[in-house]
Specification:
This protein has 494 residues and is mainly beta. Helices cover 10% and strands 40% of the residues. Strands 22, 24, 25, 27, 30, 31, 32 and 34 form an eight-stranded antiparallel sheet that branches. A five-stranded mixed sheet has the order 10-11-12-13-17, with no helix packed on it. The chain has a five-stranded antiparallel sheet with strand order 23-26-33-28-29, with no helix packed on it. The longest helix has 28 residues.
Length: 494
C-alpha cells in the first residue's frame, strides 16, 4: 500500500531541519508520589495520573496521590509489556509489545479512563520493531518502534507517522549521537510538548531530549537536552487546562511518579556579542565574530556587573586553539570548569584536568569534546552542594560534594584553595597563555523551590596510573607547601 501523506494540520507543526534552537530549557521538580506500578511509564489527565507497569495500571488522584482504582491483566492474559500511555477524550491509550520475544508483535491497548475497563486492542501488522510509545498529533498519530542491543541494533529504531485511518506515512530515524546516548537501549518515551517539539526519553539516562521532525521523514533534528530527575522510561505531558509544561515521569527504582515543570528561556545574556559592557580585562581580549577572543597575554576577562548567583545555571560556548588550556571560574577560590584541547595539551592525560572537569577535583564521565578549532557547548549548574558540568549536550559531571563517596576528590579541591561554603564569586574567563574564544554567555538564577538532584549513577573517568603518579607528586608538594606556610604563620605569632 502506498504510504499516505501527512495530514495538513500535522505537517503544519512539524519543523524543518535546521540550526539548533536558541531556546534554553530547564527542569524544576515540583513533587513526588509513591506508585507501586511506576515501572514502565505514566499517563495523566485533568484529575488523575496512571502509573503503568508491564501488565497492570494504577489510577491515582493528582492532588493527593491517593490510589483510587486500577486494572490488572489475568494471570493467563495476553499482555506482556505495556509501555508509554496518554489520555485522550476519556480514553487511556498504552503502547504494548511482546518484547523481548521474536518476531516482534505490537499493539495499542485502550481503556476507559473513568472505569478502567479495557475496551479494545489495535494490533500493528508486521511492526518495524517493538512499540514503546504512541502520541496523537494533529489528526494523525506518531509511534515509535524500538530495537535493543540485546536482540537487534538500536539504530533500527524508527518513528512512524499514521493518518486518522492508521495508514503509515513518513518515517524518521534518530541521530547516531542520540542512539549512542541510548546506550544499547532505545526511546522509552516520546510525546509532543511545549513549542510543538517532540520530547523523547531513553531507558536509563536522567535526560529529556528535544527533537524536531523534518517534513517527509529522514533524520530527526536533535535540538537540546534537558536534565530531569527521572531516570528515563516513559512520561506524559499534562494537557489539561493550566497544565502546559507540566511533566509526569517515573523513577522505577523507587516506584515514584515525579511531577515537574519544563520551562524554556528564563536566561539573562551576559554578552551582547559586540562590546565589553559589563566586563573588564587588561587589553589582551578582543571581540571577533561575536565572540570574546584572548589574543595576547595580559590576564583574565571578568564579568563585573554582578556576582554569580548562589544557585545558578550558566551556559556558554567555547573554542580552543591547538594545545590550549583555559577555564571558566564561577565560585570563589578555584571552582573551575576546565576548557582544554584534550588531544594536544599535556593536561589532557589526566581526566581530572580534562575539558569539562571540575579542575583538580572531579573528572567527567567521558571525553565529549570536539576537535580544536570547533565550537563546544558548555553548561554549569550549581545548586546548594550539587555541581553539574555539561559538554556538548551531555551531562558529564554530576555530584554532591557532601556525599562521602567523593571525600578524596573534594579534598583535592580544598587543597587547591576552595572554600566550599563561599558564594558570591565573580565569573571570569581564564587567560592561561593560549588563544581561546567564548560566546553566547548567559545565566539564570535557580529558584529555591527548584530541585537539582545529583546523578547517583555518575562515574568519573578513571585516572591512568602514570597521570595519577604525577598528580600524587603534585599533591605531596602542595601539602608540604601548605604545611610550611601554616608553620610560618604559627612562628610569627607573639
Amino acid at each position: 500500500m502506498r504510504p499516505a501523506s501527512l495530514p495538513a494540520l500535522f505537517s503544519a507543526v512539524l519543523c524543518l531541519a535546521g540550526p539548533a534552537s536558541a531556546a534554553d530549557w530547564h527542569h524544576a521538580e515540583l513533587r513526588r508520589f509513591p506508585a507501586a506500578e511506576a515501572i514502565q511509564g505514566v499517563a495523566v489527565d485533568e484529575s488523575h495520573f496512571y502509573a503503568i507497569t508491564n501488565r497492570a495500571i494504577g489510577k491515582y488522584r493528582k492532588d493527593t496521590g491517593a490510589r483510587v482504582g486500577g486494572w490488572e491483566d489475568a494471570p493467563d492474559g495476553r499482555l506482556r509489556h505495556l509501555n508509554a500511555g496518554f489520555v485522550l477524550d476519556g480514553r487511556l491509550y498504552c503502547a504494548h509489545s511482546n518484547f523481548p520475544a521474536r518476531p516482534e508483535e505490537s499493539s495499542l491497548e485502550i481503556w476507559d479512563a473513568a472505569s478502567m475497563r479495557h475496551l479494545e486492542s489495535r494490533p500493528f501488522e508486521k511492526p518495524p520493531g517493538s512499540l514503546t510509545w504512541v502520541d496523537r498529533h494533529g489528526s494523525g498519530w506518531v509511534a515509535c518502534f524500538a530495537h535493543y542491543a540485546k536482540t537487534s541494533d538500536p539504530a533500527l529504531t524508527r518513528v512512524v507517522s499514521y493518518d486518522a485511518a492508521w495508514q503509515p506515512g513518513a518515517t524518521w530515524r534518530f541521530p547516531d549521537a542520540l542512539i549512542r546516548r541510548f546506550a544499547g537501549s532505545s526511546a522509552s518515551g516520546g510525546s509532543f510538548g511545549p513549542g510543538g517539539h517532540l520530547f523523547v526519553t531513553g531507558h536509563d539516562a536522567r535526560e529529556l531530549y528535544v527533537l524536531d521532525l523534518p517534513e517527509g521523514g529522514g533524520e530527526a533534528v536533535w535540538r537540546d537536552t534537558i536534565a530531569i530527575s527521572a531516570a528515563g522510561q516513559a512520561f506524559a505531558w499534562d494537557r489539561s487546562p493550566g497544565g502546559e509544561g507540566t511533566l509526569y515521569a517515573i523513577q522505577r527504582k523507587t516506584r515514584e511518579v515525579i511531577v515537574s515543570r519544563v520551562v524554556a528561556d528564563g536566561f539573562t545574556s551576559l554578552f551582547d556579542g559586540k562590546t565589553f559592557t559589563g566586563w573588564e580585562h587588561g587589553g589582551n581580549w578582543t571581540i571577533e565574530d561575536g565572540a570574546f577572543y584572548r589574543k595576547a597575554a595580559g590576564g583574565s576577562l571578568t564579568y563585573t556587573t554582578r556576582t554569580v548567583p548562589d544557585d545558578f545555571e550558566l551556559r556558554f560556548e567555547w573554542k580552543v586553539s591547538q594545545g590550549c588550556n583555559s577555564g571558566v571560574y564561577y565560585r570563589p577560590a578555584q571552582y573551575e570548569y576546565q576548557v582544554l584541547d584534550n588531544v594536544h595539551s599535556p593536561y589532557g592525560e589526566n581526566p581530572r584536568q580534562a575539558a569539562a572537569s571540575l579542575f583538580f577535583c572531579m573528572a567527567p564521565s567521558r571525553d565529549a569534546t570536539r576537535p580544536h578549532g570547533e565550537w563546544n557547548e558548555g553548561r554549569v549548574i550549581g545548586k546548594g552542594t550539587v555541581i553539574e558540568h555539561w559538554l556538548n549536550g551531555e551531562r558529564v559531571l554530576s555530584f554532591d560534594y557532601t556525599d562521602p563517596r567523593w571525600t578524596a576528590e573534594v579534598a583535592l579541591l580544598r587543597l587547591r584553595g576552595a572554600d566550599l561554603a563561599a558564594r558570591g564569586g565573580k565569573l571570569w574567563l581564564q587567560d592561561h597563555g593560549a588563544d581561546v574564544w567564548f560566546r553566547d554567555l548567559r545565566w539564570r538564577e535557580i529558584p529555591a523551590d527548584e530541585v537539582i538532584v545529583a546523578d547517583p549513577d555518575f562515574k568519573p573517568m578513571p585516572i591512568p596510573p602514570a597521570a595519577l603518579e604525577k598528580e600524587n607528586e603534585r599533591v605531596r608538594k602542595m601539602r608540604e607547601a601548605a604545611a610550611a606556610k601554616a608553620g610560618g604563620k604559627s612562628q610569627a605569632k607573639p
